[in-house]
Amino acid sequence: MTFTFDSSTKAGKAEFSVINNALAFQIGPNTNQNVMIDVAELNTVRLGIEEGSVTTQSEANKAIFALDQAIQTVSSIRSKLGATQNRMEHTINNLQVTHENLTASESRIRDADMALEMTEFTRNNILNQSATAMLAQANQLPQGVLQLLQ
Q1: Domains of the chain with CATH codes
Q2: How far apart, in whole angstroms, are the C-alpha atoms of residue 6 and residue 75?
Q3: Are 21 and 7 in contact (CB under 8 A)?
Q4: pLDDT tens digits for 57-67?
Q5: pTM score, whole prediction
Q6: Helices (H), ranges, 1-150
Q7: Is 47 within 8 Å of 40 (Cβ atoms)?
Q8: Nearest to residue 34, comparing CAs of 98, 82, 84?
Q9: Which residues contact 47 (CB under 8 A, 6 or more apart)?
Q10: Which of 47, 46, 17 is nearest to 31 (CA)?
């Protein structure tokens, strides 16, 4: 199952899928760069606190123990969700920096002065050809001296 939400961001939409009762968010440019968020169903039945009585001391102790267990379970799940949230916030920040860098690179490419760049290219090409010609002449000079000596 895939959900799509329209957004006011420049990207236009946010998508996530539900796979094996977990939310799957694609967090990178490649296909398998996903983060899975398993959000456990928490209710009084699952936490074991649907029935509790405090009419006797023994029942009150059982209820307190059940509530302590439920608090530990909820705290554990909250900490996992907090860690996942932290990871996603860092991923968002990294993706924003990457987007800014790509935008700046594209801008530099688009803003390049093509006439100046072609002039630089031609100048470097002429210098390279001149250096090659000088090297060829330098290689012929010893042969000319040898012919004069013979």
Answers
A1: 22-140 (1.20.1330.10)
A2: 32
A3: no
A4: 999 999 999 99
A5: 0.57
A6: 44-47, 57-110, 114-149
A7: no
A8: 84
A9: 66, 69, 70, 73, 74
A10: 17
